[in-house]
Structure formats: structure tokens, C-alpha cells
User: Fold LysR substrate-binding domain-containing protein from Serratia nevei.
Amino acid sequence: MKVEMSQQNGFVDIVEGNFDAGVRIGDDILKDMVAVRIAPDIRFVVIGSSTYLAERGLPLHPSQLEKHDCINIRLSPTGPLYGWEFVRQGENIVKKVDGQLTFSSIYPMLHAVKDGYGLAYLPESSALAGIEAGHYCRVLEDWSEAFPADMIIPIMSITGSGKDNTDTLHEKGKSNITCCAPDFKNERFT
Assistant:
């Protein structure tokens, strides 16, 4: 098997882009796609610096983010801002936040948080070293949600060697194969 990788932050139509497969975090599996679990769930967290939180206070509910400077991420140059997702005891909230800074990558967000510019929403694994070093504090921790990390494959391509590759990844990851719902709509990008 040969692999050619193309890393893009935005959502790409893998069929139109002539890709054999793509990776999605979350339930962003579109019509006529199959999802194969390839990694453990990825947990998203809100973080802020202790200096920022001492000045602005600690939000206890996602609705209180309106009183904070939130650092946004835009996954593609012309795409919408990414909505922050929260779940607790059956309550699901997708929050559009506001702030002075918007980035297209996680790493400048981490620097902005460390420098006290506001709160950011990102994968916990990206922030863990800074949390452990005391650069960042977790915020709204009881609202944090984990999302599946799946390889998505167009249903039409699961024949021959494509099926063999899917079976290999499935076996190595001990994953479940999931088909998407044809009427999927993602609230994070509306």
C-alpha cells in the first residue's frame, strides 16, 4: 500500500478532490460515506491563562462565554467560524463565540491563550503539555465533549484493494464501521 497525505484544516469533499479517504473528527460524515474508527475519541476543552481568568472570572456555563474574549478558529479561508460544542447531562449546546482574534491553526491560539488574550476551544491533546506546565487552566471542564476520530471512505470505493485497506485499518484499530445518515446537518458550521 502507498500513502500520499494532504493535510487541510477545512472540510474537503474527498470525492471531488480525488482522495481515496479522509479523516474526520466528530460526526461530520456525509452522505454515501463509510466511517472506520482509527483512533480513540478526541476530547475538546476550553482553556484560559490564570492571569486572564483572574481578571475576567471563570465562566460556569457556556452562556457566560458572551462576557469573555474567545479566540476563534476558522478551518478554511472562506469558511465559517467553528462553533464550540458542549454537552452535559443531556444538554447539547453549540455556541458561536466572539473575540478579537481568529486563527486558522491551533498553535497560534495556544500562544494567544498563554499571553492572556482570551479563552480557546481545542483538542485537549494540543493543550495538555501547557496545562500540565501551568500555562493554561481548563474552563467548563464538566461540559467537555469527546468526538470520534474516523477515516471516511466513499461507499463506491469500497471494492477490491480499497476494501482490503479498510479491512486492514479496521482490524488494527479494532474499530466499528459506521455509515452516515443521508440528511446529516452540522450545527457547528451554520
